[in-house]
Amino acid sequence: MRSYLDFEKPVAELETKVEELRALSKGDGVSIADELAKLEAKAQKALADLYASLTPTQKIQVARHAQRPHFSDYVRLLFSEFTPLAGDRLFGEDAAIVGGFARFRGEPVCLIGQEKGSDTESRLEHNFGMARPEGYRKAARLMELADRFGLPVISLVDTFGAFPGIDAEQRGQAEAIARSIDVSLSLGVPNVAVVVGEGGSGGAIAIASCNKVLMLEHSVYTVASPEASASILWRDSSKAQDAATSMKITAQDLLKFGIIDVIVAEPPGGAHRDPETAVAAVGEGIDDALAGLANLSRPQIVEARAERFLSVGRKV
Amino acid sequence: MNWYSNVVPPKIKALIKREAPENAWVKCPESGQLVFHKDIEDNLYVVPGSGYHMRIPVEARLASLFDNGEHEVAPTPDVPSDPLKFRDIKRYVDKIKEYRLKTGHQDAVTIAYGKLEGAAVTVAVQDFEFMGGSLGMAAGEAIIAGMTHAIEKRTPFIIFTASGGARMQEGMFSLMQMPRTTIAVRRLREARLPYIVVLTNPTTGGVTASYAMLGDIHIAEPGAIIGFAGARVIEQTIREKLPEGFQRAEYLRDHGMVDMVVPRTEMRETLARLCALLTKAPRRAA
How far apart are CA A116 and CA A98, in angstroms? Predict the structure, then answer.
C-alpha cells in the first residue's frame, strides 16, 4: 500500500482509478485497455509535473519521507563488504552516525553517514539520526584512519540536526562538531558528501565539509530547521512555510549559489517511489565526483577543498 | 517589560539611554544592587561587588586590551549583501542598516591590530549588539581576513566570541562560515601562531561549533553561557529541567571544554602572559 503526502492527493486519486480499472480489466481485457493506458499516462504526467515544481515545504516532506532510502539502503545497494566500526575511543558508541570501511565499485572506501531508521525500533536505536558528540568523534576517527590508509571518504548526510540534550552539551557537542569539520578539511584523501535527505545545520556540515558536495534533487540543506527559523525570525513557528521559502534550502537554489556542486536527479515521484534507481543515481554521482579528484596529490586535495569553501559567496 | 517600556516607543527610549548614561543607575542582574553606570564603566563593565560581567562595548574592550589602548581597526571586508533577498518581519537590508546606525559598526566582527605588552597581536571582537553577534558572510570574512593578517605579520590571534549562532537571514551562506573560518584556523595553526579564544556571554550555535571551540587555549568570562543548542530547545526536546549552572563558563571548565575562567579585569594580563609563553618571548614579571 502506497502512502501519499498531502500534496500528492491529485496523483493519488488518478492512481487509485488506475488500480480500479486494472482490477476490472482482469475480467474483461480488451474494452478498457486503451482507457487504462490513457489514465496511466495521465497519472504519470501529473506526478512528473507535480515533482517538477515542488515548493520548498513540499521538498521537506519528501526529504523526510519515511520510505525515502536511508543510509542502510545505500549500504545494501551500492557497497560491498561494509564493515561498520563502533565507538569514539573516548566515551561511547553513537549509532546515529554509522561508519566503517567498504568497497565501492570494487575499491576500498570509508563510508560515514547518519541513519534515521525506518521503523520505531531502528529509529530509537539510531536516535532518529541525531548524533551526540560520540557520533562526530567516531566520524572524525574514521576519517583520520581513511586518511592514513589513503582511502576516499564518502559521507551520506541525512539528519534533522545534532541532538539537543544535556548529555550532548556536557560532553562537548560544539567541540565535537567543530573538530569533525576540522578533520574533514585536513584530509589528504578526497571526500565526497551527498545530502540524501535532510541536511540539518551543524549536524550536517560536521560531515559535509568535503571536496565535492552533492544533493539529491528533492533533498534540503538548511542552516536551521524551518520550524526553528520561523520561531526565531517571525517569532511564530507556524510561519515555517515562509521560512522554508525565504531561506533557500533546495538543491536547485544551493547549486545556483555555488554552495553545492552537483544535483543528483531523482526518479519521477521522488526517491521513495523507486529507491533502487535513486540509490544507483547517487552511486553514479559519487563515482563521477571521485573520478574528478583522482589525479590530485595530497596537498592539492587539501588546497582544492579549502578553495572550494573559501570561494563560496565571493562571487555571488 | 514594565509599563514604561511598553508605553515609550523603542526609538525614543534609545535616545534617552544615549543622552544620560553618565549618571544613570544600573541594576545588577545578579545581585539586584544599584550601581552608578560610571563605576561599572570604570571597572570594564564588571559590577563592583557582585562581579557580574555585563556586556562591554567593542571600543571599551579594545581599549582595555592594547597598550595604552592604542590600536588600529581594520576595514570590514566587502561581501555580497543580502544574497537571499531576505525578508521576515522586515527586509534584511533594512535591518542591517539599522544595526549599522545603532552600533556604528559594519557587522558583528571587528578586527583590530595593536600591541599587547609590546608584542604585536591581532584581535577580533564579536559584538552581540550587532544582530546577536550572528555569524554571516561579513563576520566570517572578517575573521578570515584577521587570521590571514596574523599569519602575514606573524602575530598571535585572539578572538572574543559572542554570538547567538548563525545569521539566519543569509541561510546556507551562514552555515558555510563554519568550514570557511575553520580553514583559516587551520592555516593559523600550520603557521604555528597562538590562537586564543575568549568565550564571552553568550557564545552558542554554529560559532561554538566552529572557530570558538578550535582554539589552542580557551578562556571564558565568568558566568558566560556557552553551548551548542539553546537551553530552551533542549528543555523542549527532553522535557527535563536543566541542571544548575548548565552551559555556564564554569560548567564548561568542569567538563573539560574550557581551560580557565578569567575575570575581565585580569584578562589583559592573562592574555599577555599566555602569548609571551607560547611565542617564547621574554616578559618582565608583572
Answer: 10
B137 reaches A (C-beta below 8 A)? yes
How remote is the C-alpha of A30 from its chain's centroid? 45
Measured between beta carbons, which residues in chain A are less than 8 angstroms from residue B246?
A: 166, 169
Kindly list the averaged pLDDT for each block of 10 residues, start to end, along chain B of length 286.
Answer: 46 50 78 90 93 96 97 94 91 96 96 97 98 97 98 98 96 98 98 98 97 98 96 85 94 98 98 97 74
CB atoms within 10 A of CB A222: 27
Rounded to an integer, the average pLDDT of A8-23 is 90
Q: Give the phi and the psi of residue A181 in degrees, each rounded to 5.
A: -60, -45
Superfamily of domain A59-310 in the CATH hierarchy: 2-enoyl-CoA Hydratase; Chain A, domain 1 (3.90.226.10)
pLDDT confidence bin for A48, thresholds 50/70/90: very high
- SS3 assignment, position B132: helix
Angle of helix A173-186 versus helix B177-190 axis, rounded to 10:
70
DSSP state of A239: G
Q: What cell numbers appear for A41 in the block? A: 499516462
DSSP string, A129-157: G---HHHHHHHHHHHHHHHHHT--EEEEE
Q: B55-279, what's its fold?
A: 2-enoyl-CoA Hydratase; Chain A, domain 1 (3.90.226)
CA–CA gap between residue B147 and residue B78 (Å, rounded): 16
* Contact status of A173 with chain B (Cβ, < 8 Å): yes
- Give the span between the Cα atoms of A7 and A53, in whole angstroms: 12
Q: What residues does each domain of chain B span?
A: 1-54, 55-279
Could you tell me if B173 and B83 are in contact, meaning their C-beta atoms sit under 8 angstroms apart?
A: yes
Domain coordinates in residue numbering, chain A: 6-53, 59-310
CA dihedral sign, ordered A266, A272, A277, A283: positive
- Say what the pLDDT of residue B24 is: 83
Enter the C-alpha cell of residue A295.
589525479
Reported ipTM? 0.95
Q: What are phi and psi of A253, to 5 degrees?
A: -65, -40
Residue A236's pLDDT band, with cuts at 50, 70 and 90, is confident
Give the β-pairing of A153-159 and A191-200: parallel
Q: Which residues 149-168 on chain A approach chain B with CB closer than 8 angstroms? A: 162-166, 168
pLDDT tens column, A251-285:
999 999 999 999 999 999 999 999 999 999 999 99
pTM: 0.93
A209-227 average pLDDT score: 95
Contact B186, B178 (CB under 8 A): no
- Residue whose C-alpha is closest to residue B180's, from B155, B202, B147, B205: B147
Tell me if chain A has a CB within 8 Å of the CB of B166: yes
The pLDDT value recorded for residue B5 is 45
